[in-house]
Amino acid sequence: MVPYFVILFLAVLVVYAGERSGRTVAIVAWGVAFVLLTLFAGLRSLEVGTDSANFTRLFLRADTFEYVFQHRHTGYVFVSWVTRLFTREYLFVFLSFAAITYGCYLWAIKRSSIYPTLSLFVFIVGGNYTFPFNAMSQGAAAAVILLGIEAIYNQSFKRFFVYVMIASVFHRSAIFLLPLYFIVIQKNVTTYVMILIIGTAVALFFDRILATVLTALAFEDYLHYADWRGDAVGLVSTLYLAALGLFYIVFRARVREYRPEYDKLLNMFLLGVVIAAAAAYHRFSGGGPRRLSFFLSISSVYLWPIVYKNLTNNERLVFIASFVPLYLLYYYMTTTAFGDVVPYRINPIVW
Question: Tell me: the pLDDT tens digits for 251-270?
Answer without folding.
Answer: 999 999 999 999 999 999 98
